[in-house]
Amino acid sequence: MNAKFEEFLKEKRYLQNVSEHTIEFYRTSVKAFNVQEPLTQSQLNQTVAEMRESGKSADCVDAYIREINSFLTWLNENEIVKGLKVKRLKLPKRVVKTFGEAELKAIVSFKGKTLQEARIQALLCTLIDTGIRIDEALRLKRADVEFDNLLMTVGGKGYKERLFHFPLSCDGFFLSS
């Protein structure tokens, strides 16, 4: 099964151009399921139950399930193993808590006393004003920023680039009312 898994990863990497982060998560997920031949539905279901009993969160186990299902789909499409699929866990739908106007004003009006505090505020203001992800902001390089046009090119998930306009100051539209 290891050779088939490596073939699966090779196709994901070179034919579908998935990121190395995704490849590593496939490895982690398959390792968590301890995939061995013969692969059975009972073995897969038992592994899910054992992961939950060991204290792994439903979110964590469900992420592993999504990845193992990708491999199982590939096995099915290549007629190696037929009809196996792990049922996804039922997860609560959560509403992401956002900052209120008072918290945003506090971030914007904060005046850092050190260079580190000023950099953190600049990062937070960039996140607030553009809506980019934290990892996208942390990966920004000088070459990604066009100060003449107030634009930045952000490398996102799945090797997608996005273009963002950013204001000169950190007092974005939400404070002007």
Outline of this structure?
The N and C termini lie far apart (61 Å).
The global form is elongated
Total E-strand runs: 3
User: Looking across the biggest beta sheet, what order are the strands in?
Assistant: 1-2-3
Number of domains: 2
Number of helical elements: 7
- Mean of all residue-level pLDDT scores: 87
Low-confidence segments, given as residue ranges, are: 172-177
Major sheet description: 3 strands, antiparallel
Strand content: 5-15%
Assign the structural class, choosing from mainly alpha, mainly beta, alpha/beta, alpha+beta, or little secondary structure: mainly alpha
Euclidean distance between termini CA atoms = 61 Å
- The helix fraction, in percent, is 40-55%
| Series of H and E elements | HHHHHHHEEE
Radius of gyration: 22 Å
Topology:
Elements: H1 2-14, H2 20-33, H3 41-53, H4 58-77, H5 101-109, H6 115-130, H7 134-138, E1 145-146, E2 151-155, E3 161-165
Antiparallel strand pairs: 1-2, 2-3
Helix pairs in contact: 2-4
Any overview of this molecule?
- The protein is mainly alpha-helical.
- It has 2 domains: 2-77, no CATH class; 101-175, hpI Integrase, Chain A.
- Helices cover 51% and strands 7% of the residues.
- It has 7 helices and 3 strands; from the N terminus they run H-H-H-H-H-H-H-E-E-E.
- Strands 1-2-3 form a 3-stranded antiparallel β-sheet, with no helix packed on it.
- The protein is elongated, with a radius of gyration of 22 Å.
- The relative contact order is 0.09.
- The model is unreliable at 172-177 (pLDDT under 50).
